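Researcher: Re-running this chain for the archive, since the previous output was lost when a drive failed. Same request as before.
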Amino acid sequence: MKALIYKGPWEMTLEEVAEPMPNADEVLIDVKAIGICGSDIHGYTGSTGRRWPGMIMGHEFAGVIASTGENVSAYQPEDEVVVSPMFSVSDKPEKVPLNFSPNRRLLGVEVNGAFADRVTAKESQLFRKPAGLSWQQAALCEPLAVALHAVQITPIDLMADVAIVGSGMIGLLTLLAAKLKGAGRVIMIDKVQRRLEMAAQLGADVIINAGQENAVEKVRSLTDGGVAVCLEAVGYSATAQQAIDLTRNGGDVTWIGNSAKMIEINMQSVVTREITVRGTYAFTDVEFGAAIQALAGGRLDISPLIEKIAPLGEGPDYFKKLASGELDLVKVVLEP
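Model: Regenerated structure tokens:
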């Protein structure tokens, strides 16, 4: 089969490789659509160190079951599935949610993923794809689940003012998720005007270009001292600090961004203003299922976010252009 092989920072090739064989509790999946995640781009450049040379990346995907292992009972060949990339390497039942477990692993991050014609996954990772859900939409259930989990664990009161720092894919999905949960005004902050305009199209009440005006001053003036809740979807020191500065005394900040291992913030500002800062990682099965339901049922429209659909073979070119900034596309979906 053909697959995209990560060779090292800034190098990826399309190669012919051996087809994986499913274990007893696994299925083999014909990949129909797979999204390029921002974390894939950061892995491609080597900035996060979370990808290893020789691997196949890719964790946002859906496809058709080609064959099943002998212990698989709930699924059959030809079943259409959406796949959660997260699984456990333990044979024992998990005592905590899987995203908390030290036994968790991710397809496309710690083991080979789905930038390929075919990939294996455990039966426990599978969700049935509703008939009305397109393959491209199905591939975005994973990042939507990330956004749903972030707002689920964040105390957003009905009609509360919410700020979101970063209008990339996760930030824009978080906007939709916050609206779904009952947020009032949602303020989107970024330096890329095109993405801010997309945020407005998706329902943002206020957009602020942080490259053109002081975002903190603007938010404080609009909200009488700061928002109740801020979600940060970038992951660098400047934006992490900005999220704290945007938030009123006693407010809540949730960090979704994961771009840099180490950041620097003003701890005194967190302590003296009693800001609650939490991290959020991945999702639960409940939220993954909710993402599928929200898209299949038409509760959320993510079609504007899919800005390019391309063959798998064009993947290396898109990785290079997205990483270099030559292209600014919210979501590229590849089709093997």
